[in-house]
Amino acid sequence: MRIGELSRRTGTPTRLLRYYEEQGLLTPGRLPNGYRDYGEHLVDRVQQIRGLLDVGLPTRVIKDVLPCLDTPCTITISDASEELVELLRRERDRMDARIACLARNRDAIDAYLAQVTASRGAV
DNA sequence: CTTCTGACA
DNA sequence: TGTCAGTA
Hints:
Blueprint: H1 3-10, H2 14-22, E1 29-30, E2 36-37, H3 41-55, H4 59-65, H5 82-122
Antiparallel strand pairs: 1-2
The structure holds a DNA duplex.
């Protein structure tokens, strides 16, 4: 499929699809007319990439983890340099920190909302 | 009409 | 990341 269809099917701007390729995350083939040619399996791959990106992993790391990614949303255990393992462990810890921060902010909002609700009810 | 590369208020 | 340009 060409970039337009992949974009629609993944909800990813073509601009980003080309960017991911530039970063070595995708390597689509080329049609005789020069257009990029994406295989079906790349639909899932893009999902993987976006998911990892959303969690905060830089494209640099994703490029190394990519060969370990499986179709759905799982990460298959395969090779993995000690360096990559350590990097991922640090990323995991950063995720924990973000989760804790989000939880605090959520609780703060809950408290605020409770106040607003109470005052409105009183009046 | 769709995609391509390169550039930047 | 968005977007505009000038092509093929």
